[in-house]
């Protein structure tokens, strides 16, 4: 998942469809994100490349919509409902996920294990 | 002493943090200053006389590094036996030469050669000859003024007072040298003589017109004067070039009084001269034999020379060379000089040991930690401790402890020092000098502490090592007699009203460090635990936590009530009866210490001491155990609260910070909270106002201090309607709103908004607020904008969550800006519990740290994310300051 400026980013992704849960007035997804182009990437414990400023999943609450949908901690979110998440600020990312008008968000996420699984299957 | 300050960064969230913020241990402190060579170094030089014979002489050069003394020393020729030939004749043969002169001038000694000879004859060291050693001419070159006052004798100990003040070097014009007489201590000695090269030195010498700056505290004092040698070196050339030696005549007579007592270094500067002297122009100008300074490898080789005085002199010269010269220090290490010196620490001759220790002291000082590591690697620490045990001579003890102080600032060495040296330092230095008697003799009155340099160095060393984490604290607490002796020393300091000195500062810092987490770490602590269960396991626990999540208020109220009940039990303050007097570490938390700390806070003017005493109180009142409750009540009963409130007016950031957090912890006691709310509110608000609109430029408080003050305000207005009212009366609301709006720091804004929300939650006050013109919207937006910058600070971990800033009831702002949505419906395992657990495990609050100088090691209980470890503590360094804090948001 290393990023070479100017080159298209390729990654093996998984589609995750999260149905938001209504809690009172709020629609929650049940996970927490970290990262963003305005954040410090070296503090990210999940990224392979410590200069990666992408949006990562830092926590997943148990039993929440995200966990049910298959989101895992450490995943990097590439897209949300078609909107790119690889080059956004933290705030923008949060907003894209928490639009009140959308009850379902479809994410494209990638993680190391996916990458490896594909490589292995390609080798064998 | 340069203090190495680094502080630990604490987890970001404030309010919901564990109720007892604690002061993290103090960080390490400064290392000792590099000491300057005071010891005369002997300079070995090779002199080639004109007629071609070569003579090796050893010059004892006193290193008075400090200043380049331009002494116009007239060199008194000294015969081979070291006695000066006072024939006033030609300049000392080879020695009278410029190079020599220069050195001597610097050092105020006579011709180097002669000096050396003199020294040599005396066994190579100036030793404490009570009288200036040689002839008047030399004599005058007593060891610098700076000689520690403690040593009466003119021992050629570390020469403090180099007379020439390097500072003035620049003043030297190219033309005729004004020549500051620098170090010439005895005017009578000097007779301006038209010695060719003497001028150079003179010019080099910094003026010492002002008299040498004495550093009375030689041991660890920083030598402020720039190294003479260096200056000398740089100057020499130009001077030489310029003058060609004619200056001599023009030199004005030296003011006799440059250094009334200054003992001119005995020629130690000669070596400097020599260094300078290498200039070919100089040499070529003369026909006399010259010598050159030994190169570093030669000096190191001399350390192995069979003749003992050679060893001693070499070590002394080495010390001189290393003074404030990082390059030389590095080279010495590279040339493997350190093991040689460490080996000399066990040498049978005292002089050799002393010089070696002096050299090691210089070498161990400095930012570069490689030398410290190298000293450890060749067994330096045990050797030093052995020397301390064996030595009776005070100077050696000072040098040893000074070296240990230097070494203790290097983190990996701290445990090593504890392992080898703790017992010795305690028994040999701390206990004797503190005046504490193990078996108190009923008849005699308690002895007073002696504030010696050795004690200061040792306490500094222990201060550093005490910041090394839980294990270090445990060892120090359990070291027999240490806590008792320190307390006794502090008591005696308070009794004598002598609370501003460095030793007291060191002792209080040690006490503060040892008080950190005392409720968790002392054996038997759990006996005294009360209230909340530690691990957040039980349903009750999670329930409480959940309530916390529900908003800022709910949970807090529950907690508040609970604590309140507990406090009521102790209103009568019945301390547990003790069958025997407390001793050892138990003394750390007896209520009697409260009086001691409060006295220190009242009397001392030393900011570090004030900060440490407040920090100790902060630590002690931050426990969830019985003793903390007693301490909190005792502070109140001893009328300590007004003392602390008054210190909030201090101009020093760290004092305000420590006091604010101490007050915050103290307000866990209900009665304290009420009192603090009434009396401290005005001061706290004033600090907030100053933070936002500093009365003077440059008076702006640091971020951490402001956050601490805000958190304190928050603590006292939570669960106390009266205090919230006091806040309103103190016109705190406008100040907070302004701070929230104007502040650059997210943490400050967040903390401010947190307080505002808490205030808003009191329905009773809404009327008053609205009367003042605060509508809900305005209030909310003030709170909201304060949270605006989304980089909500969560210092430390990438996965720290942000505070639940928005309470549902207050939600008037646009949706979508919520930071945290409690997952109550999903069960108690929501993020909040994780946070709480984490935060509790850490037990420290960002604002709750009265720390000092070293990064606190990450608490092992903490869930540390893999990857980069916790950034260094923020207060001073803020390494990560430039980058935004990692945040994460719940969605």
UniProtKB/TrEMBL annotation, chain A:
Compartments in which it is found: Cell membrane; Cytoplasm; Nucleus
Keyword field contains Cell cycle: no
SUPFAM superfamilies: PDZ domain-like
InterPro entries reported for this sequence: PDZ, PDZ_sf, Synaptic_Scaffolding_LAP-MAGUK, Tax1-binding_p3
Gene Ontology biological process terms in this record: cell-cell adhesion; establishment or maintenance of epithelial cell apical/basal polarity; negative regulation of cell population proliferation; negative regulation of protein localization to cell surface; negative regulation of Wnt signaling pathway; neurotransmitter receptor transport postsynaptic membrane to endosome; neurotransmitter receptor transport, endosome to postsynaptic membrane; receptor clustering
A GO term, aspect molecular function: protein kinase binding
Membrane topology type: Peripheral membrane protein
Pfam families, alphabetized: PDZ
SMART domains, A to Z: PDZ
The PDZ domain, residue ranges: 15-112
Any one GO cellular component localisation term in the record: cytoplasm
Keywords per UniProt: Acetylation, Cell membrane, Cytoplasm, Membrane, Nucleus, Phosphoprotein, Wnt signaling pathway
Function: May regulate a number of protein-protein interactions by competing for PDZ domain binding sites.
Protein's name in the database: Tax1-binding protein 3
Protein source organism: Ursus maritimus (Polar bear)
Gene transcribed to yield this protein: TAX1BP3
Automatic annotation (TrEMBL), chain B:
Domain of life of the organism encoding this protein: Eukaryota
Subcellular location: Cell junction, Adherens junction; Cytoplasm; Nucleus
Low complexity bias spans: 781-797
Gene3D superfamilies linked: Leucine-rich Repeat Variant
InterPro entries: ARM-like (IPR011989), ARM-type_fold (IPR016024), Armadillo (IPR000225), Plakophilin/d_Catenin (IPR028435)
SUPFAM superfamilies in alphabetical order: ARM repeat
Sorted UniProt keywords: Cell adhesion, Cell junction, Cytoplasm, Nucleus, Repeat
PANTHER family: PLAKOPHILLIN-RELATED, SPLICING REGULATOR ARVCF
Family under the similarity heading: Belongs to the beta-catenin family.
Protein name per its UniProtKB record: Armadillo repeat protein deleted in velo-cardio-facial syndrome isoform X4
Organism of derivation: Ursus maritimus (Polar bear)
